[in-house]
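Progress report, Aim 2. The chain analyzed during this reporting quarter is listed below.
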Amino acid sequence: MLYAHWEGFIKDASHAYMKHVTAQRLKVGDICLALRAVAVRGHVMANGSAKKSSAHARLLAALMSQQAEVFDRYPYACIDTESNLSSKVFREIIDTLGLRFLTAYELLSHRLDANLVNERNNIAHGRLSDPDFGETNQLVDEIWKKMNSFKHQLEDSAQRRLYLA
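Predicted structure tokens for the chain:
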């Protein structure tokens, strides 16, 4: 249950932030590098592994011309929890949003993976789990605090317009 709240909140809050940034109707060249990467992801994926200089030139031309376009991305396509919101996936979401991975998140990483994600996976795959309720209560408090930290980080970024270049 705790895992479902963790994944759902991070996903929904991230989508709301991306909707907010998209609603600003900013040019791709005016947003932070992380969000520019989101804007040009399709071009990079389509041409990034090409070995010919002509393909690279087309890729660069597309990337440069896109800088003047309005950032308009479907938020649900930008954020992927991979149905397994581990610390590694959470870090990728933070990076995608152009945010800083806080020390508080780093301190939670091991417990998140070992206690929350691993237990969720055990239950999801039909393995018997005998939770330590003292540990579980501590983890609930920690996850709740991290969700609040993430919420405040998103609010701060939106208010201070940290999504700008």
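The chain has two domains: 1-22+77-165, 26-71. The helical segments are 2-23, 33-47, 53-66, 75-78, 87-96, 103-124, 133-160. These observations will guide the mutagenesis work planned for the next reporting period.
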